[in-house]
Amino acid sequence: MYKQIHFISLCLLIISQSLFAGEGMWLPIFLKSLNEKEMKAMGMKISADDIYNINKGSLKDAIVQFGGGCTSEIISNEGLLLTNHHCGFGYVQSLTTVEQNYIRDGFWARSKSEEQVCSGLTATLIVRMEDVSAIILNGVNPKMTELQRRNKVDENIEKLKLVLPKLDDQEVLIRSFYNGNQYFAFVTETFKDIRLVGTPPESIGKFGADTDNWVWPRHTGDFSLFRIYADKSNRPAAYSKDNIPYKPKHFLPISLSGIKEGDFTMVFGFPGRTTEYLIYEANKQQIEVLNPVRISLRDKTLKILDKYMRADEKTKIQYASKYAGIANSWKKWIGENLGMKVSKGLDKKLKADLEFQKRVNQNPKFEAYRKLIPDMEFLYKRLEPFAKAREYYAETFVRNVDVYDYYQLVKSLINTYEGRGEAKFNLSKQDILKNIDAYFKDFNTSIDQEIFASLLEQFITEMNPAFVFNSLKEALKTNHSDYKAFAKSLYTSSKLTNQDSLYRIMSMDYVQWIAAIKADPLYQFYEDMNFYQNNDINKLCFDLEEQINALRRTHMTALMEVLPEKRYYPDANSTLRVTYGKVEGFKPRDGVHYLSKTTLDGVMEKYIPGDYEFDVPKKLQSLYNNKDYGIYGEDGKMPLAFIGSNHTTGGNSGSPAIDAHGNLIGLNFDRVWEGTMSDINYDPSICRNIMVDARYILFIIDKFAGAKWLIDEMKLVYPKGKKK
Ligand code: ARG
Ligand code: ASP
Known about the structure:
25 helices; binds arginine
């Protein structure tokens, strides 16, 4: 308890000592004590209380976690939800067919009755959050093993979940912060009836596609509209035609005033994961060992997918979402490595470690921290071969191929049978039978097989043979190291990768079913792989990482004590955070200065007729030619995107960019290529987030799509002298 209070006051002390804009993802409940002063100095006109308050409507009541991975925000009194095109893309894709192509043509409901149900989509609001560190760490002491500590923490979490005040339909989430030094509880509300309202064609919503992804200057109208539906009492409910639009406690007004270089901006959302406090050795491993493995295997997958997608429209639709997902991380890792090189990130990390060590050595007070870095270094070095093998396995056999999903499908049924009995098993099997068409809708056996063979070849060529499991070695021997032949035999002899035979298997009773599954070569392959991986790679990784994590927890506290002039915000962990900065251009390299704003002119500069990334819809061209921008234009131009020094990461997509008055001015969707290493080493000179200008969103809805009924629902804030 004493240590805990000590830890928190240490954070407060350190943070209030030294502040500068840009870096940091802050907890909304601490804004008042930690950030408000600085935010106001930077131009913010509202108070911390207007941002987070549990007793009255505040900005936080408009911020919604979208489908678990992205952020979205409520922009009308009727639950209208704004998020990124790329966040809603998976749902738009599942509503898309060759005949009714919402990806290519966009979709706009003309009234609420035309809004489309998105099965499986959820929207989560944060009711309140509180610091529960003292309760969760009660009974934890430094003499405990990691396992004992974890058990105690889990026990305390379970106990607290039972007593924390909440309504029946609300959930409690408890998350660790500062590497396990602090814990916060979140009471949340999850809505399950979310409908698609409108989405632009991908030639707007994904303009520039993968070529422009992660790159500035940018011209992507990356937005879509959804709506939250609730039951008659405004509470979360499963889909029903009787549900009504959700009435929020707060929604964001939209500013038409525009932005200029230096303006205050704030981004409010759910950043996913950052690791800003790793030691040099850990960053070096990521940059020099792990990223190259991931990048090179994905190079292969993407080339194969691109070849087939360019050749055939159906394949393009089937693989659009998957391609975007694989390419997105691939390109980010490339940028991350580049940024670390350009900004000499590893050198900086090394210097920081050395400075820490020097101060520790000089001060007897820090005696206990002397071996921290050497011990971590030792463990990271031991981890390296296993971590590398783990990446090879994941990229080759799991993340880039779909067959793994079919294995997972039957594996989870086996688990259901073993854990929950035959009745439950039969129910789940029925569910699969009902959805079998959906499982195969976006699956092309021969493409998947080609990827499998190609990745396998690289895996065998590059992997240390000691890490290749025996049955794979034998199978390759049988096939005379012909990877294609092996892949073909696996895919064609398995009953899991063919719709009809999977249907037949799923219609069997348990005894027949399990016999068929156990005899299936694909099932056997992945069983062997998992068995080997779990015992010979993952278990070792887990043990080493557990030891590393214990040291990282101490290192976090040590950093704050030893280098108190730095500021320490908790790493992102998919919880609600505020980040703030300014509209700000940057210098990516010598002699080049990027401006902070783009306009529709740039779309026409990039326009390549018929190209799948840079085509421009006719209607947009004519609006451009006629300068028909209505109230959304500025000085004869149509503003499109802008960048700022707000510290964001994956999960912040769809987050609102908010101005000094609490109005929406943009929609966050990306970061600049040079600065994607902000997840491990934020550098204020080159790290920028990218946002679509809110006026471009309104222009597309109103002038391009003709969906004025949606604009009428929003609250627009006019600049002085530009009244309606
Ligand atoms: N890079 C952005 C983010 O990390 C946008 C990705 C979606 N766009 C794409 N072309 N894949 O999620
Ligand atoms: N595009 C990312 C997202 O989807 C945001 C980022 O990584 O900057 O969350």
